[in-house]
Amino acid sequence: MYELDASVTHSMNGLAGHSAAIDFLMIWLSAVGVPLMVLAVVVQWWRRADRSHTRHVLVGAGLSFLLGLALNQFILLFVHRMRPYDGGITHLLIAPSADPSFPSDHATASFAIAAAFLLHGMRRAGFGIAAAAGLIAFSRIYLGTHYVTDVLGGALTGILAAIIVRAAYRENTRIDRWVTGIL
């Protein structure tokens, strides 16, 4: 399995370095993709249409984001995967990271938000966010900082977090009405 993962990762990273514009776009997307996604979620707080449901989804997305990253920290207690550039699999286009490679926090965060939107029935926004999440995940492999399975594992962690939040944080409960009534 490792050989396949390393081979696919190497191939995807091999696309880098042929176009300065695409390299720049991937570096930019990797750096600002998740913060822009979070900002896009936050600004919807004041959206007028179906305000209470929208706010419930936004809180669910935020909780999914946080739970996904917390799950990653738990996984890191047991898994210490070397980055692909440290193993000579990829060439790195950005500064190296001191963190282990698995799972990808970028993939976790972005897919947690997308899954939260989709699980709460906001399909149009959810599919758009999922497409952005896919691009962010791809950028991490393209730049040489993650294996393919790192971003797949991160995506699964984010989706799992959204499922847990969807099951635990119910709409129109007392706490939900209090949180969604703020501002």
From TrEMBL:
- Enumerate the UniProt keywords alphabetically: Membrane, Transmembrane, Transmembrane helix
- Report TM segments: 20-45, 57-80, 100-119, 126-145, 151-169
Instruction: Give yes or no: UniProt keyword Transcription.
Output: no
The residues covered by the Phosphatidic acid phosphatase type 2/haloperoxidase domain are 56-166
SMART domains referenced in this protein's UniProt entry, alphabetically: acidPPc (SM00014)
- What is the name of this protein? Phosphatase PAP2 family protein
